[in-house]
Amino acid sequence: MAATPALKSRPAWKALASHHAKIGKTHLRELFGDDPKRGARMNAEALGIFLDYSKNRITDETLKLLIRLAKACGVERKRDAMFEGKKINITENRAVLHVALRAPRGAKIVVDGKNVVPAVHATLDKMAKFSDRVRSGQWKGHTGRRIKNVVNIGIGGSDLGPVMAYEALRYYSKRSMTFRFVSNIDGNDFAEAVKDLDAAETLFIVSSKTFTTLETMTNAHSARAWFLKASGGKTAAVAKHFVAVSTNAAEVTKFGIDTANMFGFWDWVGGRYSMDSAIGLSSMLAVGPDNFRAMLDGFHQMDEHFRTAPLEKNLPVLMGLLSVWYSNFFGAQTVAVLPYEQYLKRFPAYLQQLTMESNGKHVTLDGKTVNYDTGSIYWGEPGTNGQHSFYQLIHQGTRLIPCDFIAFVKALNPIGRHHDILMANVFAQAEALAFGKTAEQVRAEGTADWLVPHRVFEGNRPSNTILADNLTPGMLGKLVALYEHCVFTQGAIWNINSFDQWGVELGKALAQAIIPELESKDSPKLRHDSSTNHIIRRYRKLKAS
Length: 545
Ligand code: F6P
Hints:
The protein is α/β, with parallel strands linked by helices and 545 residues long.
């Protein structure tokens, strides 16, 4: 096999570098001034999602060159390999098939000679049956009372997707049920989650791909102890109140959950790509099987768009390429995701794991240290709250922060003038960032000379605006898949493995070594660096006092 050419020596990359030298400083005012049709032209639309990318520091030539780069880097070939079930997660020798989780019944996706789609649907059917029983009150707790509270215990991909989806789809959720999510090893998380719950009406879902994650297993054992204490120590009752979502049947059994109450998934589902697997059980319990399936259909539609649409009209490809443009040619370090939709309040947190655990990598697929930046830092808050906090820096600070604004035409809860005012704000922010306010304009308002520099907005700060009709389960699926495939596109350009996460291991291993040093009765022999030794000794001393 021929060695992959280094990214920066590709002609397409070099062409982009010289193009950047030419147009990199051109102001959006000029780009819009020179082309009155730019706003109506530079957009793409698919599946009810309208992407306005005209307020980016690009020309038609930039797009052509970025598409050329995508082709040169094999984005399409790599994408097809993923959809075909090839083991593209080379460091773990695994296929990457979250797309199979939302493939329609009857589709065929083969891994190791086996079509995985029937098993996906068998699990979905099992989840649906269970959800219907719990939601209808047919599934009863050990005292015969119905389940009113669901507590998902998980962390990372086994938490962030479920919490985000619960919040995003709360409008569609069963209001007579309470949903809580426990993730942190910090005991406060568990204590607060169960404080006001009646154990006899509570169902715990222990969600963990591996079923060995320290945080989740510690919380699961505390939940079991809490439940047993509240229910008079009846171990037999546990079966009615604990179910598991995992790929590890042996560990589930060891914990004491009957595998009949286990919902499985597979090693080809990465944790951060698992919210549409059985890990979404809490989401299904909240919104019901039909809404959950509608969400899966939205995911699938975006998968098909990514798989088949020409690159220049392909929403995730365009977004991925634009972020590469800013990251690698402008030196932008972050991307702000700003949903103007309160129900998406956890979407930026969800995206942090999706984007940064995927693309925070420093070596290429062939193990060479990269000589370019990878893995943009994604962050954000829902609008308009962010406007009254960090937007100042985006508008007038010294750093370039490309923004993704996400907005919906229709409000789920139309109240008076709220929605038009909300939309006015999102459109205004994108406009202000792009065009700013010149010193002449500030002066013309009668501002004193000394104050003028403080009130100038440079502008030329790029953004995408994503406008969709309304936030339905299907639209949530489309949005999440949009970002999943945007991450894929970035990773394919950077030639990294977006599907492993070795970087989380070292800290975990060191914590395991430190736990007995904190718990031991006798002074342990510490072999860390002097700072770590010192702080451990201090902690031990203070906790004993
Ligand atoms: O933080 C590392 C990680 O492995 C994530 O990738 C994963 O989502 C999370 O831990 C939880 O893992 P599990 O579902 O196996 O408990």
